[in-house]
Design a protein that fits this description.
The protein is an alpha+beta fold and 214 residues long. It is built from five helices and twelve strands. The two termini are 20 Å apart. Keywords: Repeat, Riboflavin biosynthesis, Transferase.
């Protein structure tokens, strides 16, 4: 389980591809890997991966073909920067919202606006996931817990302050890039429950705007 509060930016040192499997060597900032055990979970751009080996601040992870297909991890190359978060512990402050580290889909960056002192980024998701996206609701993008701004069909935006841009890889995002998306589990449960009760997707959105962002 994760909180969606990115703990820093790590760097991909090496990617070793084999049949149906890729092994990533990822170097965390100094002291960020202290106390990591083999088998521990770490979110890499929001994707929960298991530590298989450690060499100082460099952690090694294996990703199966299905993970590579469903996420952006298959596009990672040596030198790329990623967001990371170590698994939450009982008693940790939950500053974002609870995440599983299981990616639902990817989104494309379609527009970046840079008004003074902040950045607004527009994303586009596959149509089938738009039903879970609400203004002021939660969403996790590359492992960061964020509040949704505006929504227009299967497009939505987020507003980022300078601290978020500094502490995550969003400061280097470019149009055309793809990002990992984890839908808020509470929102998904509400929408799916209402659908089973016979409400259409538009009615679900109208009825539950407040619930989705609670």
């Amino acid at each position: 389980m994760f909180t969606g509060i990115v703990q820093g930016i790590a760097v991909v040192e090496d990617v070793t591809a084999a049949t149906g499997l890729s092994t990533f060597a990822i170097r965390l900032p100094d002291d960020s890997a202290d106390g990591v055990n083999i088998g521990a979970s770490v979110a890499i751009n929001g994707t929960c991966l298991t530590v298989t080996r450690q060499a100082g601040n460099t952690l090694f992870f294996d990703a199966m073909q299905e993970t590579l297909r469903l996420t952006t991890l298959g596009d990672l190359e040596p030198g790329h920067s990623i967001n990371f978060e170590r698994a939450a512990r009982i008693g940790d402050e939950i500053g974002g919202h609870l995440l599983s580290g299981h990616i639902h889909t990817t989104a494309s960056v379609i527009e970046i606006l840079r008004p003074e002192n902040n950045v607004t980024i527009w994303f586009e998701v596959p149509e089938q996931w738009a039903r879970y996206i609400f203004p002021k609701g939660y969403i996790a993008i590359n492992g960061a817990s964020l509040t949704i701004g505006e929504v227009a069909r299967n497009r939505f935006n987020i507003h980022l302050i300078p601290e978020t841009l500094r502490a995550t890889t969003f400061g280097a995002v470019e149009e055309g890039m793809k990002v990992n998306i984890e839908i808020d589990s509470q929102t998904q449960t509400i929408v799916d429950t209402l659908a089973r009760l016979g409400y259409d997707s538009q009615a679900s959105k109208t009825t539950n705007l407040g619930l989705a962002s609670s």
